[in-house]
């Protein structure tokens, strides 16, 4: 998800396509469209939602193709897999560091832009001697729509 300009998004798409080529991945129009969509969307879609979105543009697109492409992108660290509230797997491209705010009632996920909390990783490293690769932080609350339902 993003606050970025179209040219920045295009650059991210090109860079990732280039990386995939280096990894020996064949870049089809469908794969390119899936990657482009996940870079541009703000919605943290599921595989099914990506499929529904792109199906009108590609008659021959299958759910399996979306599934395989998404798995490929996760495996290569290009997108993040999130499992939330509804039990479904959602996908997100981390264009800019952000944390997730989840509505505990409807499961809607919002991006909260905040600098990466590197300090906690440093402290963890010092305390334990581990090599620390990263962390996850999730915020929980009630979205404005659900707040209205309670009023
Ligand atoms: Zn809600
Ligand atoms: Zn996100």
Give the topology, please.
Elements: H1 6-22, H2 29-40, H3 47-54, H4 63-75, E1 80-83, E2 89-92, E3 98-103, E4 109-113, H5 118-128, E5 138-141, H6 144-150
Parallel strand pairs: 3-5
Antiparallel strand pairs: 1-2, 3-4
The chain binds zinc ion (2 copies).
Task: Describe the protein in words.
This protein is of the alpha+beta class and 151 residues long. The chain folds into 2 domains: 6-92, Arc Repressor Mutant, subunit A (Orthogonal Bundle), CATH 1.10.10.10; 98-150, Ferric-uptake regulator, C-terminal dimerisarion domain (Dna Ligase, domain 1), CATH 3.30.1490.190. It is built from 6 helices and 5 strands, in the order ααααββββαβα. The strands form 2 sheets. It has a 3-stranded mixed beta sheet with strand order 4-3-5, with no helix packed on it. Strands 1-2 form a two-stranded antiparallel ribbon.
User: Looking across the biggest beta sheet, what order are the strands in?
Assistant: 4-3-5
CATH superfamily of the largest domain: Winged helix-like DNA-binding domain superfamily/Winged helix DNA-binding domain
Rg measurement, Å? 17 Å
CATH architecture tag of the largest domain: Orthogonal Bundle
For this structure, what is the CATH class of the largest domain? Mainly Alpha
Helical fraction equals 40-55%
Bound molecules: zinc ion
GO cellular component, one term: cytoplasm
Cofactor: Mn(2+); Fe(2+); Zn(2+)
Pfam family, one: FUR
Main location: cytoplasm
């Amino acid at each position: 998800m993003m606050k970025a300009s179209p040219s920045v998004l295009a650059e991210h798409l090109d860079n990732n396509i280039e990386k995939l080529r280096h990894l020996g991945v064949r870049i089809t129009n469908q794969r390119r469209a899936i990657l482009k969509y996940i870079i541009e969307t703000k919605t943290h879609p599921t595989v099914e939602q990506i499929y529904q979105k792109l199906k009108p543009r590609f008659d021959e697109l299958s759910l399996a193709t979306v599934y395989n492409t998404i798995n490929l992108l996760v495996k290569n660290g290009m997108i993040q897999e999130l499992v939330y509230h509804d039990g479904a797997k959602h996908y997100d491209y981390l264009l800019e560091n952000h944390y997730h705010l989840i509505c505990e009632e409807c499961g809607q996920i919002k991006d909260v832009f905040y600098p990466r909390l590197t300090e906690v990783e440093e402290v963890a490293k010092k305390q334990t001697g581990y090599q620390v690769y990263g962390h996850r932080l999730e915020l929980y609350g009630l979205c404005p729509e659900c707040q209205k339902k309670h009023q």
